[in-house]
Please model this.
Amino acid sequence: MSTTLPFADFLNQAGLNRQHVFDLAALPPDLVAPLEPTPHERQLILFGHAGRRLWECVQAEGIHSAHPIDDYSVRTVQAWLAQALPQARARVLFPGAGRIGLQRLGAIAGWHRAAPFMVGIDSVWGSWFAYRCAILTDTTLPASAPVDNGYPCDSCVDKPCISACPAGALASGKFDLPACNAGRLAEGSTCALGCLARRACPVGAQHRYEDNQIRHSAAGSLAAIRHYSATGQAPGQATRTA
Ligand code: B12
Ligand code: SF4
Ligand code: SF4
Model:
């Protein structure tokens, strides 16, 4: 949870307990170009949540919108900006309509290495973390150093995630997204509203989301898959999954 941000405790208490400051100039150009930064936008700040705290805060505020986690996260980041960086100009990139490869940013930050089911995993949080907000700023904060929480999959002998997947989507050694989607859409699917592979992983089990958060998030990706199968359009960046 190391961070270079001022007032980081505010974010940590609010459940946005992963933060990373990137200098745009140090990021791969093909990652930055779609973000269309203006000349004064020099840094990207990524906010994530790990574990259960964020959902506790969201529930304490009450669920008042279709996207309560997104709304809460943006409100929290704006409240943090107002006290920590009142002079800064900031633009919210995510959540939003633009394309941004969050796991790719996460890989640079040291947060992301993929589990067999393609969600990022580390030895501390397991797969129970996600990306909640990304902003572009005109700040000159110290850039964050990558973290290394360890990657558990290489030394995991039994790999219970693979056998837990009822669709066999992990069985070949390469994640089979069409099989995963078909498995979730099948009548009587046991993983439509919660990935059984993710649940079977013992790493970071104490940080596993509450069941109602798992259902809430899975409902978002299920809706995206239904839309995809009905329209033929690839699930877009607007997909609110976590
Ligand atoms: C579209 C999308 C989906 C699509 C398919 C993914 C795909 N690649 O086609 C669907 C709807 C199926 C999906 C499902 C889920 N998703 Co999703 N998804 C996204 C989204 C919006 C865009 C991914 C993308 O296309 N990126 C474009 C490329 C260029 O970006 P990239 O980072 O360079 O690419 C990486 C990913 O595409 C990844 N990848 C490739 N194939 C697949 C397949 C799956 C299922 C996943 C999760 C990732 C993945 O590998 C790439 C290299 O690292 C991202 C958010 C985002 N903006 O990045 C979330 C995101 C990847 N999803 C996330 C999650 C948690 C899930 C679900 C668990 C949600 C849920 N609760 O049900 C499920 C996974 C179920 C499973 N494994 O069984 C999280 C992952 C967090 C983490 N710790 O890594 C993200 C980052 C959202 C977030 N706000 O944090 N997702
Ligand atoms: S069960 Fe093992 S291989 Fe599967 S995600 Fe967890 S640590 Fe990785
Ligand atoms: S959502 Fe279901 S089909 Fe997809 S990887 Fe998880 S357990 Fe397998």
Remarks:
- The mean pLDDT is 94.
- The longest strand covers residues 129-137.
- Residues 8-137 form one domain.
